User: What shape does this take?
Amino acid sequence: MVLLALFASGSGSNAEQIARYFHQRDDVKIALILSNKADAPVHARAKRLGIPSVTFSKDAFDKGLEVLDILRQYQIDFIVLAGFLLKVSQPLLDAYPRRIINIHPALLPLYGGKGMYGDRVHRAVVEAGEKESGITIHYVNEHYDEGDIIFQARCELLPGDTPVEVARKVHELEYAHFPEVIDSLVKKLSN
Ligand code: GAR
Assistant: This one.
């Protein structure tokens, strides 16, 4: 059994999709949801889904050890950042080499880096008059949004698309692809 942890800072709709996808699988389990925000809606989703969720402070996350202790306690094998906004610290990267992935709501290397997350990304894409956007799933390294790319999918943007509409199209791609990409990576781990 491969045990996964999901990190999310906000709504957690991707975390929920992933949890539903792996529900009742006998080879993969979403063992824990973690957030840096005690009031993030992802906690309510976790409760509804019957998955334990915990909160840590930014300071604890930056130091790494407290969060590592929690991950060890739950025997976590693989980490998925699903709408998580903090930079991952070195102790975690060292403990989970090529076992931490992130989803970014644009076609990296475009519209990535510090401060580029969620709706800010979609606003920048619209302001630049882009004709397409999409999603990037990538390994996490010590730089924001710079780890090796695992998967990308694109969506067409129409003149007049608002950031809200772009976010809708991007979320649709995320829900369609993210769980399956995780599944294929995790299968390689257990082989
Ligand atoms: C998602 O679109 C995800 O790609 C993005 O935040 C959103 C979270 O939505 N992540 C980033 O911007 C990371 N830089 P959700 O909480 O509903 O899953």
